[in-house]
Amino acid sequence: MKALDRIALTLLIIGGLNWLLVGLFEFDLVATLFGSQTALLSRIVYVLVGLSALYCLKYFSYQPRGYRDRT
After folding, report:
1. What is the pLDDT of residues 15-67, one digit of tens each?
2. What is the secondary structure of 36-47 as a DSSP string?
């Protein structure tokens, strides 16, 4: 797996966990760590997570070796 793939996946997992916390407990970890939702560092993290999600869209067409669609 390429380094960029690992970074994107890591950021996507961080974003997903943050949304889980927001949904369950109304607690935004990123905003808590970096000041607020409008703080520059928070916005940078949010943008990086969003860009990672866009980058990971390429995996929708990924099929492992030996995989056959059974539909």
Report:
1. 999 999 999 999 999 999 998 888 999 999 999 999 999 999 988 887 777 66
2. STTSHHHHHHHH
